[in-house]
Amino acid sequence: MAAPAATGQPDAVVLLANWLVSASFPRSAWERGSGVQAIESKKTPMPPEPHPALHDCELKVDALREVGAMLWQRGWSLGTSSNYSVVLQRDPLELLITASGKDKGRLTRADFVRVNDRGLPTTPGQPKSSAETLLHVVAAQQAGVGAVLHTHSVWGTLLSDHFFEQRGFEISGFEMLKGLDGIGTHEHSAWVEIFDNTQDIPVLAEQVRERMNDPQRPLTHGYLIRRHGLYTWGRDLDEARRHIEIYEFLFECVAHRLTITGELRSAIAI
User: Fold this and answer.
1) How do the domains of the chain map onto residue ranges?
2) Which residues contact 162 (CB under 8 A, 6 or more apart)?
3) What digits encode the pLDDT tens for the residues 17-56?
4) pTM (two decimals)
5) Which CATH number fits domain 52-269: 3.40.225.10, 2.40.110.10, 3.40.640.10, 3.40.140.10?
6) Given 121, 211, 230, 237, which residue has the most CB atoms within 10 angstroms?
7) How does pLDDT run across 47-104, given as a tens digit for each residue?
8) On the CB side of 68, how many CA atoms lie within 13 Å of its CA?
């Protein structure tokens, strides 16, 4: 039997199938009305605008965001721990510092505060700064300091507790000591001071200030807070970042050596 001649008209079944497909799956974002961009904007809302006090700080803000992402990736600034700052001007002193309670791996340009030499916002309406802002101010008041970084690593936390009774510990003989500003040989002994942890930051800030200004043996590169974390600084953000990396490397060396010799295990067992 011969096949039926083509009429040029779509079969009713085909028409129905096409209608069902087009109704269920629009062929383009345009046909969906809201469009892909509208859907994406609901998933990823635009970040808040930075406060006007930060209008001239964009490059420094982005540099601190980059450092925060790196420190978070290394496991030294997890959760919303840590805080970072850079000096904006000297006379009078002003700092750009991370706002309180922000995820350091996902800092936005709005997650910063401009503060004065008392650790207070220079203008109202800015986010709340870290409770430890005064510790940044004390360090930044030292000659030549342009950036301050504070981290919470596992090894720094454990060593600050292990050596607290001695109020610190020596690190000597490691080649990586040469990464600390002013140290030109591995034949050097660096003292890492440990302060007790407290919620009374003004008191702690004064203790740190006294040690930094000690004419006999001032703090030169950084210090630990017991069961808390590391503070270090540098002429600029790059140097402060390098000091963080050097200290964290050295902390791991000290901790692993104590583990190998059994000293750290014995201390934990006690």
Assistant:
1) 52-269
2) 258, 264, 267
3) 565 555 554 444 444 444 545 445 556 677 788 999 998 9
4) 0.80
5) 3.40.225.10
6) 230
7) 788 999 998 999 999 999 999 999 999 999 999 999 999 999 999 999 999 999 999 9
8) 27
